Amino acid sequence: MAGAASLLAVLTFHRVTLLVTDIPSLATKGGLDLVTSRGDVIGASEHLGLSVWDSVVLDVEEAFGALVLVTFLYQWACLRLLGRTLGKGLLGLQVTPRLSRHAVRRAAVTTAADVAVYALACVLLIEGHFLVSMLVWAVAVVLFLVNALPVFFPGRRSLADRLAGTSVEGAFQRAASSPLGGVPQG
What we know:
Strands 1-2 form a two-stranded antiparallel sheet. It is elongated and about 70 Å long. Helices cover about 75% and strands about 5% of the residues. The chain is built from 8 helices and 2 strands, in the order ααααβαααβα.
């Protein structure tokens, strides 16, 4: 996911850079705004500046939306097809049961707790809603902690596991629960 986020950041940076460095386009738009402004130079320049700002904000908002979508699709596809994400696979963990409805719910809760609410806070911030952004950011931190911390308590099930009806098992847990207590069969 860090790679996808980095790629989206680079693409968004390039979109914004192209927007503000396209001097002929900016000059044409600014000149047209000036000609149609009936002499209101300040109003024409303000309109051009706000237009560029709105385009930059839209590019950033689209990147956050894409990040949330990519995160959900990654979580869902990995859980549905493999029963684990790549990180869980590296740690020898697997999500059970591996049913489609469980994968969708778990992916949705995990995406909300890990990315979506933070993305909403960032979008609110760039839209200028500072206090609401801070409140949503605080909710994002609480949601992240409520999802993550239960894995350290008995039962070891995150909020995503509880809402999706799943659990995460390690290779050692699966081996210990086999009929021969971890001794390979065969």
